[in-house]
Amino acid sequence: MSGESLIEWTDKTWNPVTGCSPVGPACEHCWAAKFAGTRARHLQRYKGLSVAILDGHPICRRYQFVGDVRCHEDLLARPLGWRKPARIAVSMHGDLFHEKVPNEFIWRVLEVMALCPQHTFQVLTKRPLRALQLLSKGPSGGTWELAGFCSPVTAAELKKRGKIFVEVPWPLPNVWLGASPWDQDSADEMTPLLLRTPAALHFLSIEPMLGPITILRTGLKLGDEVSGRLDWVILGGETGPGARKMERDWAEDVAKLCQVAGRPCFFKQAGTAADWDAGDLLKLRQFPAARQGAPA
């Protein structure tokens, strides 16, 4: 499998973890749960991960993860075979920092990232507290020594390269860490945790956006290096049957804040429930921040 992605802000996907469990209202119409329960339902990696929930009519059927989380050792080495540099979204069909994913497995995933400096890995989680707790215990002194005994994949790759160990910077310079809030309360909770976590770049993916978010209310003051730096914001409305509406002003306010702070903002789409007209979309996309896409 090539891992090619249809997600606009990345090139490939890599899913060493599949399966999840709901953490809030944004999970009600989870596209990954729907994927597991429809297109991928016959694949062993996804079988039984989600269940259908009927909302009164078959066309409004939605899917929800049941809490079964699977770690796929056989997929760990996949990025090592991708030679062309790419942006790779990690575990989009699950959550790498889910409480059921063992610490040891997360470190194995990070080892593979360390061995692929040509790639940029985009890790998105709804559990930034776990990410903070784990990654804050990372190597001290600004470097991380990967030795062959760490995991079979690491050992095999180092042997292939004729090395006993390799030293890499910490935090890994090719790993972006993101959190996925959906409204003001979730942004207030997630964003400070995210910014306290060691990472080369921190981003928010506000999708689906279910309410207004004033990023400054989190106490960050975008660009304040003391309290942390938010480097990138993704915005998007909910899609599919039963989608909830995203107001134009919600997206516009965030795009304006990013523009003032000099941060890129990727506006993905307004969602299928939006009643925006062409002028609304054009107005939003005229903001420099909303046109910039992802950080270079």
Question: What tags apply to this protein structure?
Answer:
296 residues; alpha/beta; 7-stranded parallel beta sheet; two-stranded antiparallel sheet
Account of the 3D structure:
By secondary structure, the chain is α/β, with parallel strands linked by helices. Among the domains are: 49 residues, no CATH class; 113 residues. Helices cover 25% and strands 19% of the residues. The protein contains 8 helices and 13 strands. The strands form 4 sheets. The chain has a 7-stranded parallel β-sheet. A two-stranded antiparallel sheet has the order 2-5. A two-stranded antiparallel ribbon has the order 3-4. α3 packs parallel to α5. The longest helix has 14 residues. The radius of gyration is 19 Å and the shape is globular. The two termini are 27 Å apart. The mean pLDDT is 88.
The low-confidence runs, each spanning 5 or more residues with pLDDT under 50, are none
Coarse morphology: globular
What kind of sheet is the major sheet? 7 strands, parallel
Succession of helices and strands: EEHEEEEHEHEHEEHEEHEHH
- The counted number of beta strands is 13
**What does the average pLDDT come to?**
88
Share of helix, binned: 25-40%
Structural class: alpha/beta
Biggest sheet, spatial arrangement of strands: 1-6-7-10-11-12-13
Count of helical stretches = 8
